[in-house]
Amino acid sequence: MTVMPVATVRFRPNPLRIGLLRGGLELKQFFRGRESVIFSFLFPILLLVIFGAIFNFNIAPGVKFTQYFVTGMIAAAQLTNGFQTLAIQIPIERDGGVLKRLAGSPMPPAAYFIGKFIMVYVIGLISTAAVLLIATLFFGLHLPTSGSKWLTLLWVTFLGVLACTLCGIAFSSVPKEGKRAPAVVTPVALVLQFISGVFFVFTDLPKWMQQIAAILTAQPTP
Question: pTM of the prediction?
Fold first, then answer.
């Protein structure tokens, strides 16, 4: 009697589906850390309130400094959540053995990064909404009045979050130890914010600083 071999069907995990589930897990972990929540959401609002109260003047006809500063704070929040957070978080997870355990699971590596992007994007949307709300209520910011402008804000935010996420993932390989990651990543993030015109009008910066920023960053437009 001849026994016919039975072909085994290998299970191939769907990276997108697992990435969505991983994104939900990343969000739960984020909101359980009160320090991370306070820093991600409260820090840009505090800067907006402080700078908006101090620099209350027009930088161009019909354009207040607060309006310019709001765009910068939205970009800075994306940089903080995407670049700085991931460049610090991933080395910590690497030292804690999280990446090794995930590598031994059936989860595709792409799902891990999809989950990180979902976390950063959702946090970025909430942070952007909070900044726009505070600026509208207390600093006279005029929100877009057409659907096309809101759509532009959404896809530009999506691209910005994607770029910051990819940069954060790439830069996470620079810190050799998780405990030293903040000391390596934070100065880079601060320098990028200062030279890109987030806290000051970009055209008021020295020419050499503008040239460096033009290569490394995108400047907010009034």
Answer: 0.81
